[in-house]
Design a protein that fits this description.
Layout (H helix, E strand, L loop, with lengths): L2 E5 L2 E4 L4 E8 L7 E7 L6 E7 L5 E3 L7 E6 L4 E6 L8 E8 L10 E2 L3 E6 L1
Parallel strand pairs: 2-11
Antiparallel strand pairs: 1-3, 3-8, 4-5, 4-9, 5-6, 7-8, 9-10, 9-11
Length: 121
């Protein structure tokens, strides 16, 4: 049973930083892609970043490239999203998700409950 729990959200001023964590449990995640999605008020959910659990390959949406960094600590079964140079438009609920099919725009079958990130101007 795969379970994902996000943490680390909060309120930050524009230009500041936050680090989100996603604690994963239930199995080993070799072969999985682990990703972050977000949903802003009044907008559809969008893909943010993903990482291959096995080899560390990453993918990002263009709007966060150069500002956000996805990483994982395999020993701790934890994934991170380091968010720097935050903008008000980054305000959203951020969700951790897992895709058993690996990196490559696959099917994210497992989801966390979300953590709120609010960026003030």
């Amino acid at each position: 049973q795969v379970q994902l729990v996000e943490s680390g959200g909060g309120l930050v001023q524009a230009g500041g930083s936050l680090r989100l964590s996603c604690a994963a449990s239930g199995r080993t995640f070799d072969g999985y892609a682990m990703g972050w999605f977000r949903q802003a008020p009044g907008k559809e959910r969008e893909f943010v970043a993903a990482i291959s659990w096995s080899d560390g390959r990453t993918a990002y949406v263009d709007s966060v490239k150069g500002r956000f960094t996805i990483s994982r600590d395999n020993a701790k079964n934890t994934m991170y999203l380091q968010m720097n140079s935050l903008k008000p438009e980054d305000t959203a609920v951020y969700y951790c998700a897992a895709d058993p099919g690996g990196l490559g725009w696959g099917d994210y079958q497992y989801w966390g409950q979300g953590t709120q990130v609010t960026v003030s101007s």
